[in-house]
Amino acid sequence: MAADRRIVIENCSIATVDANDTEYPSGYVVLAGNRIESLGAGRAPEGLENVDRRIDATGHLVTPGLVNTHHHYYQWITRGLATDHNLFNWLVALYPTWARIDEQMVYAAAQGSLAMMARGGVTTAMDHHYVFPAGSGDLSGAIIRAARETGVRFTLARGSMDRSEKDGGLPPDFAVETLEGALAATEATVKEHHDSSFDAMTQVAVAPCSPFSVSTELLRQGAELARRLGVRLHTHGSETVEEEQFCKELFGMGPTDYFESTGWLGEDVWMAHCVHMNDSDIAAFARTKTGVAHCPSSNARLAAGIARVPDMLAAGVPVGLGVDGTASNESGELHTELRNALLINRLGAHREAALNARQALRLGTYGGAQVLGRAAETGSLEAGKLADLVLWKLDTLAHASIADPVTALVFGAAAPVTASFVNGRQIVEDGRLLHVDEDAIARSTREQAQRLARIAAQS
User: Fold this and answer.
1) How many of the other CB atoms lie within 10 Å of CB of 56?
2) Model confidence band, residue 3 (pLDDT cutoffs 50, 70, 90)
3) Are the C-beta atoms of 154 and 124 separated by less than 8 Å?
4) Which of 178, 216, 418, 428 is a good FRET partner for 260, with 20 to 30 A between their CA atoms?
5) Euclidean distance between CA atoms 307 and 276, whole angstroms
6) How far apart are CA 156 and CA 140, in angstroms?
7) Angle formed by the axes of helices 216-229 and 179-193, to 10°?
8) Among 82, 116, 119, 112, residue whose Cα is nearest residue 97
9) The three-state (H, E, C) secondary structure of the chain, written as one string
10) Contact in structure between 68 and 322 (CB atoms under 8 Å)
11) Does the pLDDT of residue 74 top 60, yes or no?
């Protein structure tokens, strides 16, 4: 460690989000290589060697980097469509368009999605990609390439669908894979791209899409595949009332019981949404340490309902935050979800203490790392952990009169990101990405959105 080049960040407020929620009104963080070497109150230690850079962070709050636990990047090029639909009608409206994506489109959409998140403080991202039209190219490779170029830590949840309209599902028949094809392609993706090391920049999870778009056998064999390969599992669960009815009609049980019957509860599993959960469902998730990706903006956009996040947290369920696809959360940002999670979970009589600012920050940092299986490496600021952190500027007009910096970050306007580091490497400076061209990405995503719209209209 002593030979590593150092970056010293000083004169900042620090919210570590460690187990004790340690905070420093004025402190320092020392980065050595790709690790956090030390942090604490006051000035950095004297006599540090190999210091490449000192950052005077006066007026800033330093936090762990944000962790996004659920997303669909390809949807970036279908934003602003079907804006007044519930989930099932929204899917039916958009699947015929999504089924015509190709590698060029997916790459551009991934660039746009990643850029929007990274410039807003996300240091660990994920993508649940489950649409693989025949002949569309190397979609997984395109997404991973975009993540590497942006510089974020990344989990690809390699999704799949094998239940189409002819089987009682929602996707068009030409938009799904076979059971055998989905399993083989998923295994190949894990073997090619998954890195299990402590400082891995790319990991892969097994991720059949949802109960109403995959067969029972794909769920069951997908779980077996993930555990054989030693990777995590991800899917959608309990998002809407209609999904619950679908499961009861088709399988004779609710979503949680169905998932448990197919091997889909466990500490290596996390599910998106989990809006319609009763007490026994929450107890099952707590007992098995199954994680939840809470997506408040998307749930509101699709009128899915309000997830019982405070009850989940009280029961011991691991919970993180998710943007969800940008066709159901057009902002594409995670830092705004800190505020939205807090506000939405307070809706209703006498719920003013349902979530507080520090719980919201924990959801977006340590909670997210926990559900992605990376809490030992990132998600909090602690010596020995990976150097993934964000400097939020809180001394402008937008936050100047809010004394508590964590309250300012969560309750206030979206705070500017002065700097963001991943693996000790700076990826954002003064709100701009350092390693990709934002303007070029904007042009490319616009062109690919128009191209997809033309192809869909001609089909």
Assistant:
1) 11
2) low
3) yes
4) 178
5) 7
6) 8
7) 20
8) 82
9) CCCCCEEEEEEEEEECCCCCCCEEEEEEEEEECCEEEEEEECCCCCCCCCEEEEEECCCEEEEECEEECCCCHHHHHHCCCCCCCCHHHHHHHHHHHHCCCCHHHHHHHHHHHHHHHHCCCEEEEEEEECCCCCCCCCHHHHHHHHHHHHCCEEEEEEEECCCCHHHCCCCCHHHCCCHHHHHHHHHHHHHHHCCCCCCCCEEEEEEECCCCCCCHHHHHHHHHHHHHHCCCEEEEECCCHHHHHHHHHHHCCCHHHHHHHCCCCCCCEEEEECCCCCHHHHHHHHHHCCEEEECHHHHHHCCCCCCCHHHHHHHCCCEEECCCCCCCCCCCCCHHHHHHHHHHCCCCCCCCCCCCHHHHHHHHHHHHHHHCCCCCCCCCCCCCCECCEEEEECCCCCCCCCCCHHHHHHHCCCCCEEEEEECCEEEEECCEECCCCHHHHHHHHHHHHHHHHHHHHHC
10) yes
11) yes
Taking the C-alpha atoms of residue 150 and residue 144, their distance in angstroms, rounded to an integer, is 10
Q: Contact, 285 vs 258, CB < 8 A?
A: no
The predicted-structure confidence for 6-65, as pLDDT tens digits, reads as follows 999 999 999 999 999 999 999 999 999 999 999 999 999 999 999 999 999 999 999 999
The C-alpha angle 392, 384, 60, rounded to 5 degrees, equals 15
Contact between 281 and 287 (Cβ < 8 Å): no
Q: Are strands 425-429 and 432-433 parallel, antiparallel or unpaired?
A: antiparallel
Q: Give CA–CA dist 92/302, Å, rounded.
A: 13
For 123-136, write each residue's pLDDT tens digit: 999 999 999 999 99
Chain mean pLDDT for the chain: 96
d(C-alpha 436, C-alpha 150), whole Å: 6
In this structure, the strands spanning 153-160 and 66-67 are unpaired
Chain mean position to CA 163: 25
The region, left, alpha or beta by phi > 0 then psi within -120 to 50, assigned to residue 252 is left
Backbone torsions φ then ψ of 137, nearest 5 degrees: 100, -170
**Do 372 and 270 form a contact (C-beta atoms < 8 A)?**
yes
Find out whether 16 and 36 touch, Cβ atoms under 8 Å. Answer: no
Q: The tokens of 259 are what?
A: 């998932």
